[in-house]
Amino acid sequence: MIVGAFILMIAVPLVLFALGFRASDNEGRVLAARPEFDPGEMLDSAYYREWSRYLTDQNPLRQPAAEFASWVQVDIFNESPSGAVVIGKDNWLFLSDEVSAGCKDEGVLSLLEANPGAAATPRSFARLDEMISVSDRLNALITGTGRTFRLVVPPSKVSLYPDQLPSNVRNDAACALAVADDLADDLDARPYGVDLLRPLRAEEDDAGLGLYHSMDTHWTTHGSVSMVEQLVDSYNPQLWQPDAVSQIGQDTIFANLARVIGRIADEKTPRYRVNRPGVGIEAVNAYELDPATGNRTLIPATERVPAFVLAPDKSEVARQAAYFAMGATPVREFISAPSSPNQVIAGDTFIVHDSFSWMAMDQLPEYFAHVTLGYLYSVQQEPWFVTALQEANNVVVEIGEPSTFAFLRDDSSFLNGFYDAFVPDYQGQAIEMASLTGNADIEATQGGWITEGDDGQLVLPVKTQVQKGMRPILTVTLNSPDATFASVFVGDGQGWNADQTVSRNIIAGDQTVTFDLGDFPAGLSLRFDPADEAGVSVTAMSITMVPDGTAE
Fold first, then answer.
1. Do residues 476 and 540 lie in contact, with contact meaning Cβ atoms separated by under 8 Å?
2. Which helix (H) or strand (E) is 486 found in, with range?
């Protein structure tokens, strides 16, 4: 009987597959593609593994089987099928990292200090101090150029709804919750900080559990309205109009945590919009980025997913796609048409954001004259990111609470774009190229240097320095035949110190890049390694002192 059941289990999917039935692709990932038939690969085990993955993914009964297994484990045994998800009260789902990556978990802290790229991000008090210090630095850098800066931090689901956690993990979350409260205090005390934890907790009195999705990591459109309100208030407390917010039917989202535990669940919640009389929307545009040129190109409306559409009378913009289907790559631009200029926040506003802002994209244009939104994970390493920052009058960084600690840290490459964009606005001190000395792999040219081998290094005539309230930035103008990297490090010998090195990715062609030297000890020699290949020319260098936000 067991053998018969096993044969039936194998035979039924094969028969369904032969009849043309295929597994659905609604798991939030790309299913394995069919391998090309190649007789020459018949003796290669990797070839059979490719076919195994394909047939497994295309098994028509795979998802029903996964859902059944999930139902047994969750509803019968009250256990999570995945270590990445914690099952809370009333089948609420939480990301495990948001529960356990707190400062008491020394194992997690040790792991992440050794591997900063790990998934979990500990919310330790030391990390909080570093994050606020970096934020103060960004604020001083940006506002010093005459622009405004705002940091918006949507709280984690755990921080807002700890009572929905199961009792056996609440102690694990205690430290992360304490850090979240301190973060809210720190943001509230700063002119650039937009605290959302306290306003959302106040809103919870009326909304109950309706501010975040029960089976997803993100907030609902009710929660995103609070973000828009607090951001608008930070610019002009007289602008916000509560009666401009209304409920318009339901919103359906692709519940990401449900997928992790093997369930297909499109969660429905009330949908909220912001529509202000007298404020229309002139245009909604989507752009793709060209890494080679650093430019953005308009995507014709006929060629893009219509995630946002204008009302026929241009009175408002509506999101018509679930957030997961919107696509992370397009840069989106909204231009409003107010009946009078003082109805909206003036100037060009650039918001670099994560997935929380997706729920607010059709709410923000009602209050901003011109707002451009770039998805953090898609744009931060693109040359256009620097252009967008330079063109902005108002710079907004929106990052969800756990990720904030990963991006706003001293060694984060996320800061590079801000230095590249704003350091040129400050007065730098040029370094005479003739005063540099090079090794055998780099040769002096008219007005600069060019690498002759893959280990060219230049010794700078200046040493590291520390100045109260200021941060030294080295700016280098160069040309590279290919995309590669460049490094600045300290020391007098031929080796290099990995702990005292700043590296930057560089693109092919002409460019100017910056290196933050603020964490180097004072009084040490500096060396510059243009790249790991020949043909890289260096034509200009300068040292610029920029404010770091620590001056009293």
1. yes
2. strand 484-490
CB 94 within 8 A of CB 257: yes
* Count of positions (residues) in the chain: 552
- CA gap 266, 75 in Å, rounded: 19
Determine the CATH number of domain 426-547. 2.60.120.430
The residues facing 194 across adjacent strands are: 152
**Separation of alpha carbons 84 and 86, rounded Å:** 7
Cα dist. 35→15, 31, 38 in Å?
20, 12, 9
Residue 126 corresponds to which amino acid? Answer: A
* Residue 297: strand pairing partners: 288
CA-CA distance, 359 to 260, in Å (whole number)? 21
The kind and range of the H/E element at 388 are helix 383-391
* Distance in angstroms (rounded) separating the CA atoms of residues 213 and 257: 10
Q: What is the DSSP string of 82-145?
A: STTEEE-GGG-EEEHHHHH-BTT-HHHHHHHHH-TTSS---B-HHHHHHHHHHHHHHHHHHHTT
If you search the block for the tokens 């043309």, which residue do you land on?
20
pLDDT tens per residue, range 129-167: 999 999 999 999 999 999 999 999 999 999 999 999 998
pLDDT single digits (tens) 281-340 = 999 999 999 887 788 998 887 776 678 888 888 888 888 777 666 666 789 999 999 999
Whole-angstrom distance, CA of residue 381 vs CA of residue 289: 11
Report the distance separating Cα 300 and Cα 279, nearest Å. 25
Mean pLDDT rounded to a whole number for the chain: 83
CA atoms within 13 A on the CB side of 403: 18
The answer to whether 219 touches 203, Cβ cutoff 8 Å, is no
Q: Which residues of the chain have pLDDT under 50?
A: 1-13, 16, 19, 22, 26-28, 61-62, 65-72, 76-77, 105-109, 111-112, 116-119
Task: State the DSSP string of 260-279.
Answer: HTT---EEEEEEEEE--TTE
Domain boundaries, the chain: 2-60, 97-423, 426-547
Decide: 395 and 353 in contact? Cβ < 8 Å. no
**191 phi, psi to nearest 5 deg:** -65, -25
DSSP letters spanning 322-336: -GGGS-SS-EEEEEE
In Å, what is the CA distance from 461 to each residue of 227, 517, 526, 552?
A: 49, 15, 8, 31
